[in-house]
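Ops channel
N.P.: pipeline sanity check, posting one input/output pair.
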């Protein structure tokens, strides 16, 4: 059988390509596929404890069996988690991956007459990291899967918190110092729910959405370390797993 294989972030640099096609025997597992590349690229094999795998844009176990025409992605440690949320984003929610600058005034669109609060989280590019001066950042994503996970986060927020609308944007490409990389806005009738939902959104985003950043310095570039697999995720039932 033939499967499509995708690599991101540091893994893409190690193998020297973003996409490949692999021929496998019947009954092959995700682990078998990764091991094939690991034998060819020993540095890749060393990342095995922290790499996450996804099949057809869903996080999966390494023991999962593969089928012909599957899309298998190997993801470096910045996103983690497994299993989708119980619900998808409400129709009025906005989840987007963009390449144009994000401005704070876009959060206005979550406001409605019944809302008494809007809480906004804005992540911006700072001028230092690792004790060095940062020149700029470059973000990349597994875009289709990232959008799916963003919508699932919104669905989980609606299940857990009494909120009205959610706006969730992340920018890709090159970002300069001071520019916004991510903006999350949550509206609700009362401030407590909006604060709690916004904190949940950014914390869960950082663990489960496959987006990576590369930090550029005067002496080179480094892929930022991720948070790895989370201790808890949400399952199809909408309940936490550990």
């Amino acid at each position: 059988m033939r499967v499509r294989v995708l690599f991101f972030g540091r893994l893409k640099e190690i193998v020297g390509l973003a996409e490949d096609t692999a021929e496998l025997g019947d009954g092959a597992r995700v682990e078998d596929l990764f091991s094939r590349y690991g034998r060819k690229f020993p540095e890749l094999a060393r990342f095995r404890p922290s790499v996450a795998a996804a099949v057809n844009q869903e996080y999966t176990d390494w023991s999962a069996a593969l089928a012909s025409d599957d899309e298998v992605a190997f993801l470096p440690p910045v996103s983690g988690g497994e299993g989708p949320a119980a619900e998808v984003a409400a129709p009025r929610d906005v989840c987007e991956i963009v390449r144009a600058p994000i401005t704070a005034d876009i959060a206005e669109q979550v406001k409605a007459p019944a809302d008494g609060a809007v809480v906004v989280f804005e992540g911006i590019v700072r001028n230092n990291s690792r004790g060095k001066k940062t020149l700029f950042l470059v973000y990349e994503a597994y875009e289709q899967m990232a959008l799916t996970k963003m919508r699932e986060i919104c669905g989980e927020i609606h299940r857990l918190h009494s909120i009205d609308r959610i706006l969730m944007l992340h920018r890709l490409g090159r970002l300069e110092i001071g520019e916004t990389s991510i903006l999350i806005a949550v509206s609700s009738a009362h401030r407590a729910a909006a604060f709690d939902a916004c904190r949940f959104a950014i914390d869960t985003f950082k663990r489960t959405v496959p987006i990576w950043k590369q930090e550029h310095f005067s002496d080179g570039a480094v892929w930022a370390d991720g948070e790895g697999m989370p201790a808890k995720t949400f399952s199809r039932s909408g309940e936490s797993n550990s």
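N.P.: looks fine end to end. Confidence is low (pLDDT under 50) at residues 79-86, 228-242.
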